[in-house]
Design a protein that fits this description.
This protein is mostly helical. The protein has helices at 43-46, 53-63, 73-79, 84-96, 182-193, 195-198, 206-221, 226-234, 245-255, 296-305, and strands at residues 100-106, 112-118, 277-279, 286-288. It has ten helices and four strands. The protein is rod-shaped.
Length: 306
């Protein structure tokens, strides 16, 4: 593709005085003979009646590149101003007319790569070697490799499988409060919206928050403090972060739901309050009483004397 051939005749003679006379309204060539850095391009490509201008330009560019150069869509998009869609369409044109062949192959490491073959004359087999040059694959001790045949039909490139986008799994059901008061749901929504300040990975959408709010309200209805609910939802998260934060929170709201408080059971009596030690004003004996004064014995003696 990029072989320099100094002996190849030029496409047109160099300009000489008296020969290149301009024709009215026609094309005039001002040609100079190339001796280095040139590529021979056939008129069957340059004047192809069915290829687009972008396809012809890409074919000329690809044929001028050395063996091993990258000609993938990303590389060509970086090189030319056209977008990836137009370049991909032009490459498909060249494949359809035999100027380009692309096939996927698995290399020894297991990775799949795309092998691209550029054909400068579709329908003819590429010459194995130039006169006077010894083929590398005929050297002793080297295995002969097959030469690409431009006349062979292009192997179809397997189209990448289109994976249908699966709908996200629905969130697990959450408990609901026995009496869904608006104030309770509002407090639950505020608690869920504030989880992101404790862990940025727990940023919830409005839809997920509306789904989880009844579950948080069921916890608050059971006399669980907001801080306790927040701790139950945010503690011991996976180190890499939850893949679906809303699904994890829904699971915890169900799995760790505390029992309801024991309504209807009388509350236990408060513990008895022990009075301070006092010193009796009559006998200097210590006794417990809320205020200073006489002990019980001195008070009894006083009543008896009265």
């Amino acid at each position: 593709m990029d072989t320099e051939n100094p002996s190849a005749p030029p496409c047109a003679e160099s300009r000489n005085a008296g020969k290149n006379h301009p024709h009215a309204g026609g094309l005039t060539h001002d040609n100079a003979r190339h001796t280095t850095r040139f590529t021979v391009i056939g008129n069957h490509l340059a004047q192809h009646p069915e290829l687009s201008g972008l396809a012809i330009g890409l074919a000329v560019h690809i044929q001028s590149l050395p063996t091993g150069a990258r000609v993938d869509i990303k590389t060509l998009t970086t090189r030319f101003p056209e977008g990836a869609a137009r370049i991909a369409a032009a490459l498909r044109e060249l494949e359809a007319h035999g100027y380009l062949r692309r096939a996927r192959e698995r290399i020894p490491g297991g990775r799949i790569v795309t092998r691209t073959v550029s054909c400068n004359q579709p329908g003819r087999r590429r010459e194995d070697q130039q006169p006077g040059r010894r083929r590398e694959d005929q050297q002793p001790g080297r295995r002969r490799e097959d030469q690409p045949d431009c006349s062979a039909p292009a192997r179809p490139v397997a189209a990448p499988e289109r994976r249908e986008k699966r709908a996200p799994k629905p969130l697990p059901a959450v408990p609901h409060p026995a009496q869904p008061a608006p104030a309770l749901l509002q407090a639950a929504t505020a608690l869920l919206a504030g989880l992101r300040s404790y862990d940025p990975r727990l940023l919830l959408s409005a839809c997920d928050t509306a789904h989880l709010a009844p579950g948080v309200a069921a916890w608050l209805e059971r006399d669980v403090s907001p801080s306790a609910v927040r701790h139950a939802l945010t503690s011991d998260l996976p180190p890499e972060g939850p893949r679906r934060p809303a699904a994890l929170l829904a699971h915890r709201l169900v799995a760790h739901l505390p029992p309801p408080p024991p309504f209807g059971v009388p509350a236990p009596p408060p513990p008895a309050v022990r009075s301070r030690l006092q010193t009796c004003d009559g006998c200097d004996r210590a006794f417990r009483a809320p205020d200073p004064g006489l002990c019980r014995d001195c008070r009894s003696d006083l009543r008896t004397a009265a």
